[in-house]
Structure formats: C-alpha cells, structure tokens
Amino acid sequence: MFQIVRKEILNPSIKLMEIEAPYVARKAEPGQFIILRVDEDGERIPLTIADFDRDKGTVTIIFQEVGKTTKLLGSLNEGESILDFVGPLGKPSHLDGVKSAAVIGGGLGTAIAYPQAKKLHSLGARVDSVIGFRNKDLIILEEEMSKVSNRLFVTTDDGSNGTKGFVTDILKRLLEEGNRYDVVIAIGPLVMMKAVSNLTREYGIKTIVSMNPVMIDGTGMCGGCRVTVGGNVKFACVDGPDFDGHQVDFDEAMRRQLMYRNEEKISLEEHECRLRGEKYA
Length: 281
Ligand SMILES: Cc1cc2nc3c(=O)[nH]c(=O)nc-3n(C[C@H](O)[C@H](O)[C@H](O)COP(=O)(O)OP(=O)(O)OC[C@H]3O[C@@H](n4cnc5c(N)ncnc54)[C@H](O)[C@@H]3O)c2cc1C
Ligand code: FES
Hints:
The protein is an alpha/beta fold. The chain contains nine helices and 17 strands. Helix content is about 30%, strand content about 30%.
C-alpha cells in the first residue's frame, strides 16, 4: 500500500498528493509517469510524476477530478493509502544541453510542465514560462513556476488575472520580439499543443509535446495509447509520452480521445449514484 502523506487542494477541481513510494522516487525523472489503482476494483489510470523527493522517498502527483477514478482518488485523505502505484513509466525528457527554453503549460498541463521547467532551471538553462488558465480561480503552481523560470507570463482566457488571451498569444509575441529558444516544451490540451507546434514550425524551433492518450497496461502490449508521429505508429507509454510536436498527428489524437466518452459518462454516473446510496438504473 502507498500512503498519502500530504494532500493539498490547489483549486476547486485540482488536487495535489504526496505519496510515500520510495522505489518510484529513487528512479523518477521529469517526463515520466506512474499508473495507479485506488483499490482492488479500481481502474488503472496514468498520472505524471509532478515532483519527487528521493531523500523522503515520496512522489507528488497533481490531478484534475474529471471522472470516476480521479474523483475517488480525490476523496482520499492524508494517512489513507492507494493500492497500486507503479512506475516510473515512460521515457524521461531529454533536457541535457538545452541552454534556453520556453515552457508552455495549459491548465492542468502546467503540473506536467513544472518538473521539466524545474530540471531545465537546475541545469542552468534560461527558462521563459507561459502558463494559461480559463480564469483566475483555476490558476495553479504560479509561485512554483516563477521560482524555476527567468520570466513567467500568466494568461487567463477572460483576463481575470495576468494577460487576457491564450498562451500562444504570449509565445507569438516573444518570438516576434526576437526571442529564440533551443526548445519549446508545450503541455496541455491537444488543441493548445497543436497551436503551439504550428506557431513554432514557422520559426523552425524544436517543439516537444506530452501526449496523454488513454492507457491501459502502460507497457506497450495493449496498443491502447497509440499515436501517429511522423507517419509511424508509436505507443505513448513506452515511446513517449514526449514527442516531436511537428510530427504528431493531432487531429487523429483528438478523434481517439473522444472514443470512450459514453462509457466514461456511464461509469461516473454509477459511481455518483453509489456515493449517494441510490440504485443506478
Ligand atoms: C501519460 C499520462 C499522464 C497523465 N498525467 C496526468 C496528470 O498528471 N494529472 C491529471 O489530472 N491527469 C493526467 N492524465 C490524464 C488522466 O490519466 C485521466 O484524467 C484519468 O485517467 C481520468 O480517469 P477518470 O476515471 O477520472 O475519468 P474518465 O471519465 O474515465 O475519463 C475522463 C477523460 O480522461 C482520459 N482518460 C480516461 N481513462 C484514461 C486512461 N486509462 N489513461 C489515460 N487517459 C484516460 C480520457 O481523455 C477521458 O475522456 C495523464 C494521462 C496520461 C496518458
Ligand atoms: S498503454 Fe498499452 S500499449 Fe501503451
């Protein structure tokens, strides 16, 4: 069992948990993820390793409550435990040798981008970070990102905090002003990663995106997480989740993301009925 040693509510739908998992903490690198199961009837879900502390033997996850499993996880408290916590999985991000980077986080993607910005900063790279949210109540990790960035820009869609607009508006401005980067790392909704990749393509700047297709086994066996990159089939769990944004077929990824919408809705409704003690029809 893996104990929750710290729980924080970052905003109404996003929670942070620090989990005691010494073997995962010992090997974890930015860009990697874990697969967890809350209890023995639970579904396996992948979550990014947002941070780790090798000395304490803990791994931090940050997750948005979007459906049955993330809501169940979010209902657990400090001192309670998770049944399975497997990792680190996936390939670590290749950040060595990068001297300047723009790190772009969209919404929850900021939690996935944070360990990459932190690592780049620790390697001495110049880091410009741009994080965007729908409104000020949804902003997460602003302080943490500012500590690992030379410059941090915050956007909100409605202008309730920071600059009104999208992360791509700021990135476009930075590029038009003549800023150049060895790499742009963009993590967030597919539509945002696609927009960033289209923008950086014009400037010939290498762009890394983090793909998050539905994963089942996380070992490259089931094929559930396949994405097309440069015309080839790749499995995000073992070949990624980081890929060259200029090579990813985002339109296909967006279609595949909608595939299980109906089943996910039914599963969440059943879970909520059970919580309320109602019979699910
Ligand atoms: C490599 C990777 C890293 C991720 N990191 C994070 C993270 O750090 N924080 C976070 O909040 N979310 C992360 N996700 C997404 C997270 O796995 C899903 O939000 C979660 O599985 C939803 O489960 P659910 O039962 O709560 O919701 P459901 O209602 O079952 O699904 C809601 C949506 O979540 C996605 N999803 C559902 N099941 C899976 C699955 N088995 N694998 C992947 N996606 C799924 C689908 O897009 C789906 O439409 C990551 C996904 C991947 C692939
Ligand atoms: S999750 Fe099964 S192949 Fe990647």
